[in-house]
Structure formats: structure tokens, C-alpha cells
Amino acid sequence: MLIFGIILSIQLKNFPIFIQNRGITLNKFRYKIVKFRTMKQNNAALSEAKVSSNIFYKPELNEKLTKFSKWLRIRGLDELPQLFNVITGKMSLIGPRPLMLSDLEILKQKYPVQYLKRELFISVPGISGLWQIYGQREKKRN
């Protein structure tokens, strides 16, 4: 993680770790998640405005990634800092994936049935879930 952090800080010209609010729902299992910064900082505000309402796959963000950042994401190595969340008991290795609060708002508005199903979860959020196992990581290579 130290080597990845050094490479990311050089390429992105910013601190390589950031903290983001996540949750299973807007009210359930809310906490701060530790993540590697993989997107160029100067586009962060722009990306929030331009992101599509597809909360699971956002190909438009690929243009904001360096080659190394894409490599980390394809291999799932960008998830390594979340081990700190596992150590502190806020996450498990396997479980339902916590979503960004903005994505949870979209889910609640556009897919209320799926949002209510997330309310039924009783397990702690996980680093790896169905999307990481069955998601189409090969699409990220483009």
C-alpha cells in the first residue's frame, strides 16, 4: 500500500488516501470509508455533476484516471485501504457493498424496491460483494 500510495501521490499530485461517507442506506451502517484516491483531483467537482444515474457502472469517469489508477482498479487493489475499516470493525471482508450517499439517494428515488431491500440487510458492509465477484471488470480495461 505504501508503494501504491507513493506512485499515486506523484501522479495525482495529491495525498493518495481520502475518506468518504458511505452506507448501506441513507440511515443504516453509515460510516466513513478509507480509500485510495484514483481520480484526478481537478475533476472531482466536475465528475459529481456529469456522472450518470447508473450507480453501479460509470464509464464516463475512466477519462479522469491515470494508467496506473486504471490498473489498480481493474485488479481491485484500490480497495486495500479499506482493510483499516475491517480492522476497526466497520466493515467485513465479504458483505453488501456500501454506496456513496449520492448513489443511495438515486437508488431511493429510482429504485425504491431495491432500496427497501437494502434496509433489510443485517450484516456489516463488505469490501467484496456480488459486484466485485460478478461485475464486469474487463469493461474497465477500455
Structure overview:
This protein is α+β, with helices and mostly antiparallel strands and 142 residues long. The protein has seven helices and five strands. Helix 5 (101-110) packs across helix 6. It starts with a helix and ends in an 8-residue tail after the last helix. Residues 43-47 have low confidence and may be disordered.
Query: What is Rg?
Result: 15 Å
Order of helices and strands: HEEHHHEEHHEH
Biggest beta sheet attributes: 3 strands, antiparallel
The residue fraction in helices comes out at: 25-40%
**Head-to-tail CA distance between termini:** 25 Å
Q: Uncertain segments of ≥5 residues (pLDDT<50)?
A: 43-47
Strand content: 5-15%
Total domain units: 1
| Structural class determined from secondary elements | alpha+beta
Strand order of the largest sheet: 2-1-4
The average pLDDT score comes to 81
**Outline type:** globular
- By DSSP (H or I, 4+ residues per run), the number of helices equals 7
Task: Write a brief structural summary.
By secondary structure, this protein is an alpha+beta fold. 39% of the residues lie in helices and 15% in strands. The protein has one domain.
